[in-house]
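ok so I'm stuck.
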Amino acid sequence: MNIKHVILTGITLLFTAFAWAQQGTVTVYQDDRLGTLLYQEKNNTAQTPKEAIVANGYRVQVYSSNAARKAKEAALEWKKTIEEAFPQLRAYVQYQAPFWKVRVGDFTHYAAAVLCSKQLQQAYPDKAGEIIIVKEKQVKPLYFEEQITPTTTDSLRIATK
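replied:
not stuck anymore, here's the structure
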């Protein structure tokens, strides 16, 4: 026999011995909540005890720019400025390529968005031309203890998360 065949046979027997030595039982202990989270992630569902109604509505856009280097920093600065001046409003920074946008409020009625835009235009008269009202999908979820079905065909829909 050739020396190469002897070495190859020896290595093969050695690997076979190691492979058989690795057999055994592995027991994994995990929290039951981990399985629930993995199921929700896989099926894109959320188990909530309440039904959620998501209202489509409006937000007031106060900033939009596609300036390559400074748009993100300016958007974050606008968000901070708006939240300090109007603590009752929530400001959202959004990136929709290539634009950075700052939108304010969670309004389900157009009239409320108009009032907010007027206040913002008065507070920032130099930016009044840029302040506009935009439609938003899913402005805010409303949770109820009981299942509620809308009787009219308006902008409400049942969210099944």
